[in-house]
């Protein structure tokens, strides 16, 4: 599932935070290369889809975001989230 997120990021003009070989398989961290307003994105995701992502923290707040790919998360969940983020980007 993490690889799906990393591939999606690259397809949408964003890059994974960690270099290949050092990327997490449980939480995908993506550089916010599109300068998305993460709090606004989360408000959109919560309001319309009951989903959320994690903002970067510390010096990375607003510069990265994180998508969990662990626990009871399924590929269907990941695909739905990525589609919802695309809708936010296009609005």
Task: Please report the total strand number as a whole number.
Answer: 3
Strand adjacency order, main sheet: 1-3-2
Span between termini: 26 Å
Let me know the largest β-sheet: 3 strands, antiparallel
Question: What would you call the shape?
Answer: globular
Percentage of residues in DSSP E strands: 5-15%
- The helix tally amounts to 3
Instruction: Give the low-pLDDT segments.
Output: none
Derived structural class: alpha+beta
Strand and helix order: HEHEEH
The whole-angstrom Rg is 12 Å
Percent helix range: 40-55%
Mean pLDDT: 97
Based on the model shown, name its key terms.
91 residues; alpha+beta
Give a description of the structure.
The chain is α+β, with helices and mostly antiparallel strands. It is 42% helix and 13% strand. It has 3 helices and 3 strands, in the order αβαββα. Strands 1-3-2 form a 3-stranded antiparallel beta sheet, covered by helices on one side. Strand 2 (54-55) and strand 3 form a beta hairpin. The mean pLDDT is 97.
Q: In short, what is this structure?
A:
The chain is built from three helices and three strands; from the N terminus they run H-E-H-E-E-H.
Write the layout of secondary structure elements.
Blueprint: H1 2-11, E1 27-31, H2 38-49, E2 54-55, E3 64-68, H3 75-90
Antiparallel strand pairs: 1-3, 2-3
Helix pairs in contact: 2-3
């Amino acid at each position: 599932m993490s690889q799906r997120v990393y591939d999606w990021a690259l397809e949408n003009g964003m890059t994974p935070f960690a270099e290949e070989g050092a990327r997490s398989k449980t939480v995908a961290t993506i550089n916010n290369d599109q300068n998305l307003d993460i709090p606004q994105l989360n408000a959109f995701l919560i309001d319309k889809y009951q989903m959320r992502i994690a903002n970067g923290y510390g010096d990375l707040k607003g510069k990265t975001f994180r998508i969990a790919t662990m626990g009871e998360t399924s590929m269907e969940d990941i695909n739905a989230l990525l589609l919802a983020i695309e809708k936010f980007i296009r609005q």
